[in-house]
Design goal:
The chain is α+β, with helices and mostly antiparallel strands and about 180 residues long. It is built from four helices and twelve strands; from the N terminus they run αββαβββββαβββββα. A hairpin with a 4-residue loop joins β8 and β9. The protein starts with 7 loop residues before the first helix and ends with a helix.
Length: about 180
Amino acid sequence: MLRHRFTAEEFHRMAEAGILPEDARVELVRGEILEMSPIGKRHAYVLNTLVDLLSPLRGRAVLSVQNPLVLPPDTEVYPDLALLRPPRTAYRDRLPEAQDALLVVEVGETSLDYDLNVKVPLYAQAGVPEVWVVDLVRDRVHVFRKPAGGGYGERQTLEEDELEVLGLKIPVKEVLP
């Protein structure tokens, strides 16, 4: 079977031309357009909780919710949440890329396998310094740090304890539904 792989530029042109509906829940992963899982109520609750808990970082990071993150040359994903380097005006005329990310968070229930086995390695390859995957299947948070090649040098699975980013500490129990 022959597959056509798209560039991020072609992906955007398809959206601009209306080939991809504006409200389509799709990502570009290694040149392939993939449909994303629908967001359930537990997923939405956790994402809203994280936005609330991370809001004290305003000014030290740009909180980006379900917006594009470009992982050149042929990947554009929509993490549930990303903390980006300020200022927010840096993203007025361009989409954020991996080097702009301080932290990426994925909330996984139906998408958990995809998040852990496809997206985490993509983030590592692109050099994203830290990734949290909130595991709604087993009520825990997977933390990945120190990207090296296609993986992370430091991995933790937390059911209790605290998450920490930019000096802000968040109890894991507050993140889980």
